[in-house]
Structure formats: C-alpha cells, structure tokens
C-alpha cells in the first residue's frame, strides 16, 4: 500500500477527495456521493444554514466562513489565509463522513431566505 495524502477511513464507505479552487481560502471536498442533485446552495452565515443540518454542522468547525453545496461537491471557505487547511481538514472530513453515515437529509424542505437585508 502506498502512502497517500488523502484521508481514508476503512470503517466508513466514504472516500473524500479535495480539489483546489482559484481562491486559496476555498477548498472543494468531493465525497463521491450526490450532494444536491442538480442545483447549488450557498450558505454565507450560520443563520443562513438553518435549512441544512450538514451546513450547520460544518459552521460549528472553528475557522469555517462559508459553505457551498454543488451537485456532487461541498466547497468550504475559511476565514483567513492564516488558517492552515491541514488543521481544518480533519474536522471537515469527519463532519462530512459522520453526516453521510447518519442518513439525514442534506437540506430540509425549508427554503433559505434570499433577502440580503442584513448589514
């Protein structure tokens, strides 16, 4: 077996890959499972994540600034360049894996508010 920089947890059937984005503060996590069928959702604050149990859990990780769901990926943006991805990644991997293992819906039926009246 070759050493690999990916995290693989044999007890769980999820193998999460990461992919860089043009923004060094954002990292794409690809769980190999469907996230949102054919749409995207962005959560820029913990309050906006009220309709997504997974986004709420990801916001509990210190340093997470925003969460974006795509059809088959999750993009996490961290609060500052000073934060090291190597410190954030294990918590993010664990949160995503535990969530998929739980079988909970990624988003509930409540639609997020799109008003940008907050200042």
UniProtKB/TrEMBL annotation:
Scaffold protein Nfu/NifU N-terminal domain: from which residue to which, for each copy? 16-103
State the protein's name. NFU1 protein
Annotated Pfam families: Nfu_N
Stored SMART domains: Nfu_N
Its cellular-component GO annotations read: mitochondrion
What domain of life? Eukaryota
Q: Which InterPro entries match?
A: Nfu/NifU_N, Nfu/NifU_N_sf
State the family named in the UniProt similarity comment for this chain.
Belongs to the NifU family.
Q: Which gene encodes it?
A: Nfu1
